[in-house]
Design brief:
Length: 262
């Protein structure tokens, strides 16, 4: 999809939001990489991220994941935002963490442990975090460290044994390297599976998916939907997504990927 087509689609999605009602509850945002020259849609530029933080400081209250879940039914919950970062890229420590630390903004890292353990990048130009960097952020007190599997596999195609072994390996590595037993989990690519659900509910207190429904008092804590922040959002669509969810965009994206889960 070209950038022109993508931008045009976003205007249609944003317009649809105006007739789909308000977006209640806390907004849980998904980030991946933040770097100078983003190439993939899941990445954002440093300039864009700084603009996001500026807007959040002026218009919202950034809270930790657990606070948002506890207060998800409160009247003022729609002004709460949760910052989550998936996988574990080095720019989280080098670029993002200093800015969050300066503003005292809590955040959640859903860590995929294999690439951190081996120091092999998940994709070209995506240097992983080190355990030392993760430990330093944990010591700072702003970070909630969650699990995101070991091998970042699509759990829909995995057996019960494979899922249990992979999640167990992830949990053990996080405990061995950082001394934290993760209480929160995020499904790779946001793809839920019924087999994985049984394992996840036995290991963690919450689980996060991709885009979808708002987080409300009725939300199952093991089916928390988040709002993916994309390179093509820019400042305008970031604000629209933050206020109303850009929910039609998420519906179309799920359909295009053939995902029909929750």
């Amino acid at each position: 999809m070209t950038d022109i087509v993508r931008k045009g689609s976003k205007f249609l999605f944003a317009a649809a939001d105006l007739v789909m009602g308000s977006w209640p509850g806390p907004r849980v945002l998904i980030y991946h990489q933040v770097r100078e020259n983003p190439e993939r849609q899941m990445e954002v530029s440093v300039e864009a991220f700084e603009a996001h933080l500026f807007w959040l400081r002026a218009n919202a209250k950034v809270v930790g994941l657990e606070e948002a879940i506890v207060k998800r039914g409160h009247p003022d919950a729609k002004n709460m935002f949760v910052l989550t970062f998936d996988d574990g890229y080095a720019d989280l420590f080098d670029t993002v963490y200093p800015a969050l630390d300066e503003s005292a903004m809590p955040f959640t890292l859903y860590l995929s442990t294999q690439h951190v353990e081996t120091q092999q990048p998940m994709s070209p130009g995506s240097q992983p975090l080190t355990w030392d960097q993760i430990g330093k952020m944990a010591e700072g007190g702003l970070m909630t460290l969650g699990a995101h599997t070991h091998a970042h596999m699509d759990l829909r195609s995995a057996s019960l044994l494979e899922i249990d072994e992979d999640l167990g390996r992830s949990d053990r590595l996080i405990m061995d390297r950082v001394g934290i037993a993760p209480k929160h989990f995020a499904y790779p690519w946001g793809y839920w599976s019924p087999l994985a659900d049984t394992v996840v509910r036995g290991r963690y207190q919450t689980a996060a998916l991709g885009g979808g429904r708002p987080l409300t008092a009725e939300t199952d804590p093991y089916l928390i939907h988040r709002l993916p922040v994309q390179r093509s959002d820019g400042a305008f669509f970031f604000r629209r997504k933050a206020k109303r969810g850009m929910r039609l965009e998420e519906k179309v994206r799920r359909m295009a990927r053939g995902y029909d889960g929750p």
